[in-house]
User: Fold this.
Amino acid sequence: MPEVATALRKTALNATHRSHRAKMVGFGGWDMPVEYTGITAEHMAVRSAVGLFDVSHMGDIQLRGPGSLAAINQLSMNDASKLQVGQAHYSAMLTPQGTFVDDIVVHKLSDNDYLIVINAGTREKDIQWVRQTIGSMPSCHINDFSDMYTQLAIQGPRAQQTLQKLTDTDLSTIKNYWFTWGKVAGLYNVMIARTGYTGEDGFEIYIPSDEPTSARVWQEILEAGAEFGILPCGLGCRNTLRLESAMALYGHEISDTINVFEAGLNRYAKLDKPGFMGKPALDAITAAGGPARKLVGLEMIDRGIARDGYPVKSLSGEALGQVTSGSPAPFLKKNIALAYVPTTHTDPGTELAVEIRGQLVKAVVVPTPFYKRPRTIAPAV
Amino acid sequence: MPYPAQYKYTKEHEWIDVSGETGTIGITDYAQNSLGDIVFVEMPKLGEEIQAGSTFGSVESVKAVSDLYAPVTGTVTAVNEDLVSAPETINTDANTTWLIKIDLTDPLEAASLLSAADYETFIAEETGH
Assistant:
């Protein structure tokens, strides 16, 4: 047990989690539920039915004013000029070296009004970075709204049917990575976004962050989803779900020592738009022939579980790189990992070894995502 | 959660059931609960000597790896092979799901380990309740 007690921040649902016997853990400076009924059961609920997550530890930064589009396009590698009102996209804020300050989701609330959702562990760093990078640009106000919202994620093939019971907004009209505002659980003008971090269909809603409201809506969603077998979910399955879907996690697949090409996220970097923070470095990497290492998916062949930080080697023991995330995959029932290896070793089918407690354990490079959800039309409510 | 009174316990959350010169070793209910869904157990080979306080294997849940520490010194005489295909049995019943059996080097060595009551006090302190 760690001797140094650091004060962890709490979301408005902290007491709810504790009173429902969630196992709590420190994550990115926050006291968060890691699991309720168990990672495997929660993971399977999201893949097959629906799960509910408290993701209020995520931060929210608003950029507002006539200069906000220019500001967001300087700050973020994707091209926000392509967004329509009510649309969101995945992007990242980069350092001048083309490495990651954080990955973000940019929402266009209206002309001259954008909301950036950022990671929990990087909140303070991110807000400072935003102020430092675009604070001097004209006609753009920067507002940190992180503490104003309780952010709930309702995820899984039954997410729409669950949430639909609590709103008269027709959720079937919201496309993936779009959002709208509607009345949810009696609350007016709730932002309802068809986004998530699980590889499933689902929604994220942003409600006022006072404790009674947060606890009430949490409970109403659980009741609405009860007939589908909804489970309250912790960060444990959030991690295994995103890993099966090969989504990056800051501090693992992406960081300020990993660049956009290495992470394989260059499809979100719009190098043809006018300059943005990190673009010259990305152009230089392209001119130099691309990155020397890349992120790959690994599936363990021999018995063993790759974990974050384990060395990746050739079968003959030559050091190649490192696992960034590794875990048993509850849905796929395989042991999977993401790892950085030299571009000479990235072809699917390439056999490598992960060093697990001194032993070389065989693995194979596989295409990512490991899991892709079946593209079926959601059943009518 | 009752911890069998005839077992002895370690602060690393193993139990040992001593019967004559044989010790049967498992992990405690507290340990399985802390780990969550157990998916992998790595155990020593038959005939291997394990040393009190040293690691003799590991148990992995979806989220974490935890080393197994030998409560006492001895030689491995049996390994619970069922756990290779069904490691989750430990979650179901940690008190009766054994990992290994050992031939005890000193049958009296286990006497100095924690009693069930001592262990319950220890975990109560560890969890701060």
Observations:
- The CA atoms of residues 58 and 113 of chain B lie 21 Å apart.
